[in-house]
Write a structure and sequence with these properties.
alpha/beta; Rossmann fold; GMP Synthetase, Chain A, domain 3; 18 helices; 25 strands; binds adenosine monophosphate
Length: about 500
């Protein structure tokens, strides 16, 4: 099956249902959405000779044309290569080169980023904001998407890469369908009355959630700002109702702050799916207290997109469960098509309760890395995906993550999981954000350094924070040093760059 068959089906079943919206304005119904996708596909074949299996780069900020182009690419059996719109033009060019893209589709607001980095004519370009695009999408195309096999490549997903060059994760039509079926089973139910709001980049997790919503004929909403503005999201929730969205933990925090400021609770935002980075217990409790039960957590990675475990709405609301806080601090049990296990350094499975590397196997797991058999062999072993994350399973199958394996701090021969230190410090009212890292030390091997961002006007100091840690974590885990920063370095998806923090500390030491 071709994942674009879902668009064709919705166009037949609900031709007049609103499909693509910018803010509250309807740009296209389902019949028009499918017609445009078919027309874009036909244009790509005719003008750029895009054949089934060929790659097409997409370098654009969020807009409804993004979805037209994605489905246009799949309509003709080609492969989409969505590129994070915040990347440098040279990085985007590298991804096009690595993937062998035949052309790049751009939005005008980042055309300069591209043309400053790439010689004119080096790669054909198509602007989705041009008159030519408006004309071509009104044309005709094939009546139905080209037939594809489950294992055929659909999406080359370049990892965000907090270190080194990104790798192209090969996601098949079958992977994307498995991910979407898990959305229905483990994350949320979707009806045609619902809306999915793209407040995070369509090139990444938020965009992957288009599929279950196309399948059910729901609305796809790109905020007018094109990105994340907490006030705008709260307003759209009220105007559109039944809104679901994917949000990184930093976005949830900003939404909660905005809701508090306006004395609101997120009315109309039915489901906020969060994930992509650690959500601290203190933060999710605050979010629930402010906005109520609207939250679902997912844990996944590009290599098994959005689909390793999920902590459902039900588990967020079971406050009378004796293990409620433990559940809330976990990322939930495995999603429906995935098995999860924990392994030791030699790859042997560990029993419940023991900490090791998280591995996942199942229908959502990637085919491998594009043109990179070595990385594929290192990461996929007998179908098991080595996630590089450290965690433990409890006897009921709930997974609790500690850290990325490379972030674990080894001090005096003992493993210290930075997340535990961060969770402890975040329960102090003066601490807004914190990241704990390991810094080389002659005696201990490494020591824990806490990089802290204090709330405005806060007065906490080393002594106060030290006493606070001592009240909740073992003495040997507490930071040996505190560094106060105005903000934490983050990548384009809001993930804290521990590598930059470590470099910063190394520079200070030298
Ligand atoms: P990416 O491939 O860029 O989506 O990054 C995936 C990584 O983000 C995972 O391997 C985890 O380290 C982290 N991650 C994803 N979801 C969660 C979550 N719910 N809690 C903690 N970390 C997460």
């Amino acid at each position: 099956m071709n994942i674009a068959d879902w668009l064709a089906a919705s166009a037949h079943l609900r031709p007049r249902a609103p499909a693509l919206l910018t803010g509250t304005h309807v740009d296209a119904d389902y019949a028009t959405f499918a017609q445009r996708a078919a027309a874009v596909g036909a244009h790509l074949s005719r003008h750029y000779n895009v054949q089934p299996g060929d790659r097409v780069g997409l370098f654009m900020t969020n807009c409804t044309q993004y979805l037209e182009c994605l489905y246009g690419i799949w309509w003709i059996g080609a492969v989409a290569v969505p590129i994070n719109a915040k990347l440098h033009g040279r990085e985007a060019a590298w991804i096009c080169e690595d993937s062998g893209a035949k052309l790049i589709v751009l939005s005008d607001d980042i055309m300069d980023v591209w043309s400053e980095a790439v010689a004119p004519g080096a790669l054909p370009t198509l602007s989705v904001d041009s008159d030519a695009y408006l004309r071509l999408r009104a044309g005709e195309g094939a009546a139905a998407p080209l037939a594809r096999e489950t294992d055929d490549l659909a999406w080359l997903f370049y990892t965000s890469g907090t270190t080194g060059r990104p790798k192209g994760v090969m996601l098949s039509h079958g992977n994307l369908m498995a991910m979407s079926l898990c959305y229905f089973a483990d994350v949320d139910q979707v009806t045609p009355q619902d809306a999915i709001l793209y407040a995070a980049p369509i090139s990444h997790g938020a965009g992957l959630y288009n599929f279950p919503h196309v399948r059910m004929g729901a609305r796809h909403v790109v905020p007018e700002s094109g990105g994340f503005d907490a006030d705008e999201v709260l307003a759209l929730g009220k105007q559109l109702q039944n809104v679901a969205m994917f949000a990184a933990p930093t976005m949830v925090r900003r939404l909660v702050d905005a809701a508090k400021k306006h004395g609101e609770n997120g009315d109309g935002l039915r489901t906020i799916v969060y994930g992509g980075g650690p959500m601290y217990l203190a933060d999710i409790r605050d979010a629930i207290a402010t906005m109520g039960q609207r939250f679902v957590q997912i844990y996944g990675q590009g290599e098994s997109p959005m689909t390793i475990t999920a902590l459902s709405r039900e588990w967020h609301s079971r406050t009378d469960d004796p293990r409620y806080l433990e559940r809330l601090a976990s990322v939930g049990p495995a999603q429906s098509v995935i098995s999860v296990r924990i392994t030791d350094a030699d790859g042997n499975p560990l029993p419940a309760g023991e900490t090791g590397e998280v591995e996942a196997k199942g229908a959502a797991v990637m085919l491998g890395y594009w043109n990179n058999p070595k990385a594929t062999a290192d990461t996929l072993k007998n179908g098991w995906l080595r996630t590089g994350d450290v965690g433990r399973l409890d006897a009921d199958g709930f997974l609790t993550l500690s850290d990325r394996s490379k972030d674990v701090i080894i001090s005096g021969g003992t493993n210290i999981y930075p997340r535990e230190v961060e969770e402890a410090l975040l329960t102090h009212a003066d601490v807004r954000e914190v990241s704990a890292i390991g810094v080389p030390h002659p005696e201990w091997g490494e020591i824990v350094v806490a990089c802290v961002v204090l709330e405005d006007g806060a007065t906490a100091n080393d002594q106060v924070l030290d006493a606070h840690c001592l009240a909740s974590i073992a003495r040997f885990k507490r930071p040996k040093r505190y560094v106060y920063l105005p903000s934490l370095p983050k990548n384009n998806y809001g993930k804290v760059l521990k590598t930059s923090l470590r470099e910063m500390m190394a520079k200070q030491a030298s």
